[in-house]
Amino acid sequence: MAEDLSPADRASLAAEQGPITMAVGGVLVFEGGPGLEQAAILERLQERLHLIPRYRRRLQAPAPGVLNPVWVDDEAFDLAWHVRRTVLDGSPGALAELVGREASRRLDRARPLWELTVAEGLPDGRVALLPRMHHALVDGVAAVDVGTVLLDPTPEPPAIPAPDAPWVARPYDRREHLGRLARLPLTRATALARDGAQRYLTPSPRRAAADLRAATELLTELARTRPQAPPSPINGALGPNRRYAMHRAGLAGLKAAGRAAGGTVNDAILAVVAGMLRRAYPAMADAASRSPVALVPVSVRRSDEEGAGGNRFSTVLVDLPAGEADAAARVAAVHASMAALKASPAVRAGALLAGAGGWAPPLVSLTLARAMGGVRAFNLVVSNVPGPQLPLYLNGRRLLEAYPVVPLNPANQALNVGVLSYDGGVCFGLLADRDLQPGVGVLAEHLRASLDEVVALTG
């Protein structure tokens, strides 16, 4: 009744040391109206939680300090404990402050590693949901979160078939589990033969983990062959607490700006981040200094791969032209750099094929960030992920904005930029160490100024 953790799962747990907390999350902002009360959210989850069975599982150590932990059913599972409610005071920064406090706190490893906060009291009667999931819970092989299960493609919720029988926790028997481990050598050869026959026929979590390890090793080696990222004010020892800021921009304007400067919307977004750093940190604006380096997931799908299924992603190290004063030149510089990187045989060899349930780019970024943290290969993570361009709903209430929350990792990275496009907008989420100067509020102002400058290229 126990499920082994994947290598990525175990690495995520091991990375949670000192000031590092490995919960990924988001901020989902809905229009006001009925259907978003805590009781309604609990009812919706109760109807659909069978779609994500691991969300009723907790960690169990068969032999602490000797054997790896496993997933087992939580016999004391209490859905209401995982769904919290808070009422904000309506001030402009209250929601961001709440996100920062939540991002500073580790999830309870004695329970299933997820939480959902219902935040009321936003301006105009809006309501926000803050899902948080440990990286080990959504390890990419099953990268489905509570937010995904809650949302619908239309105002009228589709009918979701109920499970065949009510969920009942399967008790964990430590003695039986240890006995099964003792018998494992006798069955290993059979299992390996079976896996060998199946790995090229069906998607396999074991194959996915091996692919990720291979890509990680390759990209880590690439990082070691290039100069280290330059010292910067955003790299230093972390404290335990975080601050958060968010900003939404129009997707059409950024697309047009990218085209106007000879690049793409992704190039424009990275140029915006470079402009933010230029404004916030004069040392980075010095054209004589080395450019800051970002770890970025990118699509490396070729035109002849269209329709093949899945998305082919790699993770690259991009020099951000913070020393370039002209916004158009920043977009052009990013475009040239990205084009060269995407065409690199080594980067393509390190690509991962991600389907609907495959390795999601933010999780790939975090895994590689852990692996490459020791070589100071980059200064920050910019996790730019395309999302759905049609509206989503929860109990008939429209999702207006969706901001990513990407945890800080490794322990010398004091700033991350999460970017998610959704329903005609681009949502930026800045997570930083609480003591980073300037703080995320000032950084968000610099981000807005840089956005205005890039979007003005269309004029």
Protein architecture, described:
The chain is of the alpha+beta class and 459 residues long. The protein has 14 helices and 16 strands. It has helices at residues 7-15, 38-48, 79-82, 94-103, 146-150, 174-198, 205-225, 251-260, 265-280, 282-285, 327-343, 345-349, 361-372, 440-455, and strands at residues 3-4, 23-30, 57-60, 70-73, 83-87, 114-120, 127-134, 242-250, 293-299, 311-319, 352-354, 380-386, 393-394, 397-405, 415-422, 425-433. The strands form 3 sheets. The protein has a 7-stranded mixed beta sheet with strand order 8-16-15-12-9-10-11, with helices on both faces. Strands 5-6-7-2-14-13 form a 6-stranded mixed beta sheet, sandwiched between helices. It has a 3-stranded antiparallel beta sheet with strand order 1-4-3, with no helix packed on it. A hairpin with a 2-residue loop joins β15 (415-422) and β16. α7 crosses α13, α8 (251-260) crosses α9 and α9 (265-280) crosses α11 (327-343). The longest helix is centred in the middle third of the chain and has 25 residues, at 174-198. It is globular. Mean pLDDT is 81; it is low at 139-144, 177-205, 305-311 and 353-361.
Report on the biggest sheet.
7 strands, mixed
* Residue runs with pLDDT of under 50 for 5 or more positions: 139-144, 177-205, 305-311, 353-361
Q: How many distinct beta strands?
A: 16
How much of the residues is beta strand, in percent?
15-25%
Radius of gyration: 22 Å
Strand order of the largest sheet: 8-16-15-12-9-10-11
Specify the overall morphology.
Answer: globular
Structural class designation: alpha+beta
Mean pLDDT: 81
Helical coverage, percent range: 25-40%
Number of helices: 14
Order of helices and strands: EHEHEEHEHEEHHHEHHHEEHHEHEEEEEH
How far apart are the first and last residues' alpha carbons, in Å? 62 Å
